[in-house]
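sanity check this:
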Amino acid sequence: GTSSKVGTSRMPGVPTTLSVSSTSPSPSAHALKDGFGEDQIGWWETATLYLLVHAALATAMSAADATRFGTAAFVLLLGALVFSGTLYAMALGGPRWLGAITPVGGLGLLLGWALIAAAAIRA
């Protein structure tokens, strides 16, 4: 119904906001970057890129046709949050074993893309 379409289309707003704000040129962003090592900067940049791209895609799909693409959008967001979340956590000093969970988010991203393809083929 209408409520699920509205809910699904609003869902990507939070990850998109987080990814955009993590790249902003604010003093706090520069302070974080100055305290980061090379690995941490790489993790942060990768997390931000993947979260931004997939949240934007999920938003566009939900706005275009939440009935057809809603599941794919949800799976993409979940995958992006796990993938990016573990990288952000490690960049901020979390344990390195979180890197073992990052590929689970990557599998979610792959599944989301496969669901997009399947929905497009069915159309």
Remarks:
- Residues 1-9 have pLDDT under 50 and may be disordered.
- The chain has five helices and no strands.
